[in-house]
């Protein structure tokens, strides 16, 4: 398990460039077209749980009637404030998570949401981008973690033991110090 859950982790410049590449399968195209292809994959593979990270992915999922177990939003798209996406019946958790970080509060919220039997919406004051990483760590194997690849489409991460190990290595590369290696989004 991750031993750094009690400390805030910071994105380094080396890791930032590495994370620009999709962590899973890129379903390219504008959100509605990508969502249609994604729905076919979901219907075929029937994931245990679905985690939607990001406002565009969340709003697209809700619009197309695809139910996720966990939604993670910051009420911004491309850094512009938007009207919050309404997720009917979701329990809401509000957390702080500054740009370029994964705080201990964020770790705990994603872990709690992953264990919940009901739908959870995590509302982030700050930035949610990096929370796809703990989502992969805490999601049960056989789940999907979805996040947006700006101006390209939706990334589908199939949660396997191998993918969890890959993400653990990325997390280990993050810094536990807020120094000049930290990058603000």
Topology summary:
Elements: E1 9-10, H1 13-19, E2 25-28, H2 31-45, E3 50-53, H3 55-63, E4 70-73, E5 76-77, E6 80-81, E7 91-97, E8 101-102, H4 104-115, E9 120-126, H5 132-138, E10 144-149, E11 153-158, H6 161-172
| Annotation field: number of helices | 6
- Find the count of extended strands (DSSP E, 2+ residues): 11
Runs with pLDDT <50, length 5+? 180-185
SSE order in H/E notation? EHEHEHEEEEEHEHEEH
Radius of gyration (CA) equals: 15 Å
Helix- and strand-based class?
Answer: alpha/beta
Physical arrangement of strands within the biggest beta sheet:
2-11-10-3-4-9-7
User: Average pLDDT across residues?
Assistant: 91
Distance between the termini: 27 Å
Give the overall shape, derived from the CA principal axes: globular
Main sheet makeup:
7 strands, mixed
Helix content: 25-40%
Mind explaining what this structure looks like?
The protein has 185 residues and is α/β, with parallel strands linked by helices. The chain has one domain (25-172). It has six helices and eleven strands. The chain has helices spanning 13-19, 31-45, 55-63, 104-115, 132-138, 161-172; strands at 9-10, 25-28, 50-53, 70-73, 76-77, 80-81, 91-97, 101-102, 120-126, 144-149, 153-158. Strand 10 and strand 11 (153-158) form a beta hairpin. It starts with 8 loop residues before the first strand and ends in a 13-residue tail after the last helix. The model is unreliable at 180-185 (pLDDT under 50).
Short recap of the structure:
This protein is an alpha/beta fold and 185 residues long. It has helices spanning 13-19, 31-45, 55-63, 104-115, 132-138, 161-172, and strands at residues 9-10, 25-28, 50-53, 70-73, 76-77, 80-81, 91-97, 101-102, 120-126, 144-149, 153-158.
């Amino acid at each position: 398990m991750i031993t750094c859950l009690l400390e805030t982790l910071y994105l380094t410049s080396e890791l930032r460039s590495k994370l620009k590449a999709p962590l899973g399968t890129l379903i390219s195209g504008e959100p509605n077209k990508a969502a249609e292809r994604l729905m076919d994959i979901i219907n075929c593979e029937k994931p245990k749980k679905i985690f939607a990270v990001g406002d565009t992915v969340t709003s697209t999922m809700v619009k197309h009637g695809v139910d996720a177990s966990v939604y993670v939003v910051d009420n911004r798209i491309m850094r512009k404030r938007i009207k919050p996406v309404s997720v009917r019946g979701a329990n809401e958790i509000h957390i702080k998570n500054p740009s370029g970080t994964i705080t201990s509060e964020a770790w705990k919220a994603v872990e709690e949401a992953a264990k919940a039997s009901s739908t959870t919406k995590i509302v982030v004051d700050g930035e949610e981008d990096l929370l796809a990483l703990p989502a992969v760590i805490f999601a049960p194997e056989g789940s999907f973690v979805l996040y947006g690849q700006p101006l390209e489409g939706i990334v589908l991460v199939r949660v396997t033991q191998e993918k969890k190990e890959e993400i653990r290595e990325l997390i280990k590369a993050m810094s536990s110090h807020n120094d000049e290696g930290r990058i603000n989004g």
